[in-house]
Design brief:
homodimer, 295 residues, alpha/beta, Rossmann fold, 6-stranded parallel sheet, 12 helices, 9 strands
Chain lengths: 295, 295
Amino acid sequence: MAEPLFHRLVLIGIGHIGSSIARALHHAPGTVERLVICDASPAHLARAKELELGDEYVADPAEAVAGADGVILCTPVGSFAAIAEGIAPHLAPGCVLSDVGSTKQSVIRDVGPHVPEGVHFVPAHPLAGTEFSGPDAGLADLFKGRWCLISLPEGADEDAVEKIESLWAALGARTARMTAAHHDRVIAIVSHLPHLIAFTICGTADDLADETREEVLQFAASGFRDFTRIAASDPVMWRDIFINNKDALLEMFARFSEDAQSMARAVRWGDTGYIEDRINRSRKIRKSLIDIKQA
Amino acid sequence: MAEPLFHRLVLIGIGHIGSSIARALHHAPGTVERLVICDASPAHLARAKELELGDEYVADPAEAVAGADGVILCTPVGSFAAIAEGIAPHLAPGCVLSDVGSTKQSVIRDVGPHVPEGVHFVPAHPLAGTEFSGPDAGLADLFKGRWCLISLPEGADEDAVEKIESLWAALGARTARMTAAHHDRVIAIVSHLPHLIAFTICGTADDLADETREEVLQFAASGFRDFTRIAASDPVMWRDIFINNKDALLEMFARFSEDAQSMARAVRWGDTGYIEDRINRSRKIRKSLIDIKQA
């Protein structure tokens, strides 16, 4: 039998993404010899055990990472600095430390300084997820055909990077490398800004006078339903993402606001040519997504 | 056998909604004795015939409505005034004239003045639809469990209204009555504004520098994918809706803009409490939608 990629892999955080990794690993036997689940929430840890997601269940991150050759941070990005500081003295030489955070500059900023000599830091971000949270929300095929982006700090160890790339390949994902700054801009427009908008419009509807609000719910047509779906995502995770990708998110929001104001202006003044042109461009983007099988 | 609701029902426009009505009627035998399909596009009309959507296929609306006891306008709302003017002299006394337009004040304004004495005008709006267009996009179960809103002009004939309500019940929908002004506000927030936003953000992404744009497409995460889905909707139909529900749409857009600016400000200044609060409210709306089975 081939050597496993990791002898002892620790998932810190067994929410939607962590439990999806665990489930996907069950379908990739031989990839990991011993899977250790770690979560600060006793309820999450107990549920992970009931679901038999791993081989070992440990509440304390410092204890969990002892002797591990792989550690993946799967908690909200705002918690990374404290966790990295706490586990750093317990990481074995040669261990590969990775994450699944949706922001990459902040992760390199927060985790990087704590990584001990001889430990290999490989930040990663799988572009997958639903609006559901917690250990029960994991899906074995969540990463199938999706991208996992790798944003390397300076002087990253090539063998360690290839191990993380192989891990994501085993989970069904395709990998690509890009700088953290570039990653943060691309993800700001494709994921962070859409979430900010969805959270906002649900609040706007909620603020309407009482009678209308009930009808908003009752008569939610397809457009609004789609927005509420992504707006149902985890509050702490998204709060952390917004704060930690502030610059790119605010730049994309400014661009969007200008465009939305122009569209509103076209509606006010009946500029049908402008409106049709914008809608046609949107359709082309949708078509491109379908063509490259990302829709 | 029971008397049919309509002896000769004419669908003017055989796009997504028109062809869904035709298909749903095939599953509700006895509701309509003779279904007449009318469309200005020879290609759509030929395709409707190939799909055997109706009993008769007529290009000219004036010719199609002759002898009909029911007519439903299923074209973009911007075309209603001209169609109403053209068919008015050919409508038989007692005929019920209805529509499926997404704006109701504009429909009453545009169609109302053309309705001859003795013809009953019953504006309606089924809250259903996908991003697809044309006669092939029809779905027999599109209206199942969805709402159809009825907004009556002054002095509407109660028997005619009940006929239209029975028709939508036969198609699987629930009906509710509300004033046109109220309808237009509710639908502005649940449908029109989400579409305006989705069209806009796709354009914002398309305007990014070339290298990033390709990656935006390649790495489209779930948030953006959902937005492009609704942004793939028909340009002429949506142009007409925006222009014809301008006041309510611009008011809802102004409210949304204020809220989005406040969210951006919270992100800039790290106001985590505000961000979490807004996200939590969004989740509650989503939960309410699931509870009342509209999600």
